């Protein structure tokens, strides 16, 4: 669902040179090893980039344990991948120092799931806003700082006199979450990574918070990576979508096409699992049974991770992991059902958000 292009960013903070990504993951893999337990791959060879020139809104969806939060932590510089790299302006995030590190901390911000854990209960909520102003030197005087804070609060639907001077427990969950959005607006980053930002607020506030995120994207040119398990809100606010399963990208592309015409069997399962808002057609809640014949092969990582649940499993699915195949100009799926179509050239899922440019790789059949 394409939206009008947002205004250009402020001249005082010029955009990155044409063609260079702002933030990118290059084959990022995160493995957890536990004594006495098998190896757990939380994220596998993720290649993904956010443009430094054109603000975007990308949703990342998948069930619990799919690797969504691991992806967020890696992109935020909070957890270095076991292998691969996360780069900001072409530099490894985990090797940044001095001015480069400060720039990364300013330009890439986060909104977390729990709107209470981000606060220190010993400080009033003002502390969340005054610290970045001081750290990033956003104001020349106390009066300027006050004006910035009041403007940011009003932009997210909060009244300064009813918000400032209070402790976190004195505000509702929705107010606390909107405060974290206000902090992001105050800093004016280029990218906000929002990890389940509305999962812990009631339905009446979800629309308000999501509307604010859309406003930041449209009016202020801030890109978003919106991580959620909710397909409905992903469809509502995002332009592009990435579907994760067991740490792997199984489908990606333009959100309207992926939701309405899902190609990968797992995405089809996710979409079909959403209850129909029709009382005459009750949802059975039935899920497909696992395929015991291929469960062992899938668990060892030698084949498709979804093979043990897939109704279309083939012999090749047990032996090899499927690459991303281009199924449409704005869609790709990691499934051997589409092996007659071209592969995504570098494995970068960002390429599925626009038509191919340059030479396509041949299909498996052609090789």
Strand-helix topology:
Elements: E1 21-32, E2 40-51, E3 57-61, H1 68-75, E4 83-88, E5 91-92, H2 98-107, E6 108-111, H3 126-135, H4 142-155, H5 160-163, H6 173-187, E7 191-195, H7 203-220, E8 223-228, H8 231-237, E9 240-245, E10 248-254, H9 255-260, H10 265-272, H11 295-300, H12 315-319, E11 325-328, E12 331-333
Parallel strand pairs: 3-8, 3-9, 6-7, 7-8
Antiparallel strand pairs: 1-2, 1-4, 4-5, 9-10, 10-12, 11-12
Helix pairs in contact: 3-6, 4-6, 6-7
Question: Can you give me a brief rundown of this structure?
Answer:
This protein has 367 residues and is an alpha/beta fold.
Task: Describe the protein's architecture and organization.
With 367 residues, the protein is an alpha/beta fold. The protein folds into two domains: 21-238, P-loop containing nucleotide triphosphate hydrolases (Rossmann fold); 262-275 and 288-353, no CATH class. It is built from twelve helices and twelve strands. An eight-stranded mixed sheet has the order 6-7-8-3-9-10-12-11, sandwiched between helices. The protein has a four-stranded antiparallel sheet with strand order 2-1-4-5, with helices on one face. Helix 3 (126-135) packs parallel to helix 6, helix 4 (142-155) crosses helix 6 (173-187) and helix 6 runs parallel beside helix 7. The chain is globular. The chain starts with 20 loop residues before the first strand and ends in a 34-residue tail after the last strand.
């Amino acid at each position: 669902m394409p939206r009008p292009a947002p205004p250009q960013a402020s001249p005082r903070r010029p955009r990155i040179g044409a063609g260079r990504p702002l933030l990118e993951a290059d084959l990022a893999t995160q493995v957890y090893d536990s004594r006495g337990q098998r190896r757990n791959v939380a994220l596998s060879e993720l290649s993904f980039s956010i443009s430094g020139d054109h603000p975007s809104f990308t949703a990342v969806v998948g069930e619990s344990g799919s690797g969504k939060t691991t992806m967020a932590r890696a992109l935020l510089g909070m957890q270095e991948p076991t292998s691969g790299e996360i780069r900001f302006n072409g530099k490894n995030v985990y090797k940044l120092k001095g001015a480069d590190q400060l720039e990364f901390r300013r330009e890439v911000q986060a909104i977390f799931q729990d709107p209470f854990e981000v606060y220190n209960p010993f400080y009033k909520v003002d502390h969340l806003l005054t610290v970045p102003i001081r750290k990033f030197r956003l104001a020349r005087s106390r009066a300027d700082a006050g004006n910035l804070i009041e403007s940011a609060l009003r932009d997210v639907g909060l009244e300064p006199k009813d918000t400032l001077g209070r402790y976190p427990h004195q505000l509702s969950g929705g107010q606390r979450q909107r405060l974290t959005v206000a902090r992001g607006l105050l800093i004016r980053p280029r990218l906000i990574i929002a990890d389940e930002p509305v999962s812990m607020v009631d339905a009446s506030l979800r629309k308000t918070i999501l509307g604010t995120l859309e406003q930041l994207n449209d009016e202020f040119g801030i890109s978003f990576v919106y991580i959620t398990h909710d397909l409905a809100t992903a469809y509502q606010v995002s332009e592009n979508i990435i579907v994760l399963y067991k740490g792997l990208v199984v489908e990606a592309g333009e959100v309207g096409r992926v939701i309405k015409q899902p190609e990968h069997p797992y995405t089809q399962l996710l979409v079909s699992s959403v209850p129909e808002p029709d009382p005459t057609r009750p949802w059975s809640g039935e899920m497909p049974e696992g395929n015991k014949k291929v469960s062992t092969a899938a668990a060892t990582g030698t084949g498709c991770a979804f093979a043990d649940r897939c109704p279309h499993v083939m012999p090749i699915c047990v032996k090899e992991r499927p690459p991303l195949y281009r199924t449409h100009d704005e869609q790709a799926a990691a499934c051997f059902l589409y092996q007659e179509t071209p592969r995504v050239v570098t494995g970068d899922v960002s390429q599925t958000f626009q038509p191919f440019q340059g030479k396509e790789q041949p299909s498996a059949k052609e090789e």
